[in-house]
Design brief:
The structure holds two protein chains of two kinds. Chain A is an all-alpha fold. Helices cover 46% and strands 3% of the residues of chain A. Chain A is elongated, with a radius of gyration of 18 Å. By secondary structure, chain B is an alpha+beta fold. The chains are: A mainly alpha, B alpha+beta. The interface between A and B is large, with 37 and 39 residues.
Amino acid sequence: MAITDLPLFSMLRTRMQWHQERQRILAQNVANADTRNYRPQDLAPLKFEPSKIAMAASAGPSGGLTRTDANHFNVGVSSSGNQFQAAHGGNLETRPSGNAVNLEDEMIKVAANQMDFQAATTLYTKSLGLLKAAIGKR
Amino acid sequence: MDFLKSIAIAASGLRAQSGRMRVIAENIANADSTATTPGGEPYRRKVATFKSEIDKALEAPVVTLGPVRNDPSEFRVKHEPGHPNADENGNVKYPNVNGLVEMTDMREAQRSYEANINVISASRRMIQRTIEILKS
């Protein structure tokens, strides 16, 4: 039984991949903060369904991620695949040039993304520590 | 690894914003440059534009400095008969650069630049945290 088959590790791994993808999208938003007619993009929050987790434990690294294929939105030419849904948010602030990026919002999202990623990696580290304790290694 | 893509996208933003700063610096430095011949055209204010294009190596949309266009607004005209470049009416044309507009543009470019730097720092910290998993 490989480590990645354990539901805990596969879920954390999916979550870390989600944060990675979101960081890329937020970086794009910030870099395009002055481009004409640019609308900021974001990812929908990750949801795990308990019934799918047990089933997906043997299905591979995708974890118990809820997906609806019909709504897949191409968030850019990404080689990691488009397994994460894009969120469609309301744009409250659109400047005359057509650009709708709110820099403060994006900065807050970047900081929150980083902290959540840190939480996921800490959990991953602690879980590895648990396993190591179980096999008797110090 | 996707984090390197985030850093590369933010780096393209840095390059674009510094290009914009260069254009603003040109405008401010040439704010009083009249024409070299009497009745000729003085310095015309330039405007930097951005465009988003797909970088093939990264497979991600990056931002680049688009064509630098000229500001088509009117020149300021001052009545200075003693100026060597005055035309037959004694008027001298000055560049259409407004100092206040340039300062505001400069602050906005600086703000965007710092935002891109923050994105790079955050991505770098995330990579470091990932590598630290191995250490424990």
